[in-house]
Amino acid sequence: MKNELTDNNLQLIRELYNIGFYRINTKEEAARFGKKNMIHRVQLIFSADAIMTMKDNMDANTIYVLTDVFNISMLVFLLDDELHILGPFTPLLHTKQDALRVLEQNNIKDLNVNIYLRYRNLFPTISEDMAVHIATSFLKTNDSEYSGRRIKKPSFFEDESQFLFFEEDRENFVNLLQLRYDNEKSFFNCVTKGDSEAALNYLSKMQQDVSYIKRIGSTLENERIGCAITRTTLRIAALKAGLPVYVIDKISSKNTKLTIKETDIEKILDHKKEMVKDFCEAIMQLNTNKHSAVINNAIYYLENYYQDDITLDLLTATMSISKSYLLTLFRKELNTTPGNYLRKVRVTKACQLLESSQKSIQQISESVGIADSNYFVKLFKKEMDMTPSQYRKKHNSTVG
């Protein structure tokens, strides 16, 4: 009866947390466990011999947290003289760069990095504290004599190389901090100039700097926080470069929306790089036009948000200036009006779509911010001396 209850609780935990939970009594069971969860011979904690040796030498009042060279963990403990294993699980997520570091550090050349990453994704990502909580709850339910257990991480299963390296090179830590500060300063300066290639290079260096003192791997929350820190740095750099606040907010908000619910660590890093590019491109565009700051800001808004329903009232309210002042500057510097400039932008964007896509005229009209396709055709013909259909036939090679 007790074994049946224990089995039910094991299955309940498997289903609730999508985690492996095993009861092992024989070497054959240990071998099956290792075969199911092991990918490389360096993972000694998964070998049948190691598992049975642990079973014979464990303290019954201790929960052991074991971690292999790939930072894959499992909890091991005894209940009624039977060995129980909770896991494997991964406390930290690994990017491709993390994976390459792990394989290089352990001189593993016969394991493909993509296969390694797919292997790690087989296991749930939970913290060690959560795993201990699960194991403790299980023991409280199934051990009538439970009065608490020690938590132990056996040193002979830990990878001590990073700690020893840090201890031996402690004097380099200050130099590392100085290097990171220099890289952050260079990153900031590159962004203010709109140099995306150099900025991305320094961003990569900054991320490499922390690996000296950081355990390999990360969590989604840590990467979201890192992205938020970069976002703040970019906002300050963009303000210094003269980028309008509404543009800064637009780019920043886009990144926030992309990362806040993202569950793929690589995509969070990609979104961070994309944000750097967006800020740099906006700043470069701002610096390229030799006009006043007001006109540069207006041009940027019209050329990037032409799909929206833009009115003069909306434009001036967004820029916090009067209509008469904006109209005066447009006539003085561009010899046109904001409305005419917007129409030219929309027609130019429509030309690009007519040349490269098979969208209908109605779809293209809506894509450039004009809901009425008849008005769009009239506007297009006035600017280009031909209809959209005629333009497409002339410039789109896929149209017969």
TrEMBL record:
- Molecular functions per Gene Ontology: DNA-binding transcription factor activity; sequence-specific DNA binding
- According to the entry, every stretch annotated as the HTH araC/xylS-type domain falls at 296-394
Entry keyword annotation includes rRNA-binding: no
Organism the protein comes from: Lachnospira multipara
Please name the InterPro entries in this protein's record.
Answer: Homeodomain-like_sf (IPR009057), HTH_AraC (IPR018060), HTH_AraC-typ_CS (IPR018062), Tscrpt_reg_AraC-type_HTH (IPR020449)
Source domain of life is: Bacteria
Q: Please spell out the taxonomic lineage of the organism that makes this protein.
A: Bacteria, Bacillati, Bacillota, Clostridia, Lachnospirales
Q: What is the protein name for this chain?
A: Helix-turn-helix domain-containing protein
Which keywords fit this entry according to its UniProt record? DNA-binding, Transcription, Transcription regulation
**Keyword Metal-binding among record annotations:** no
Q: Read off the Pfam families from this record.
A: HTH_18
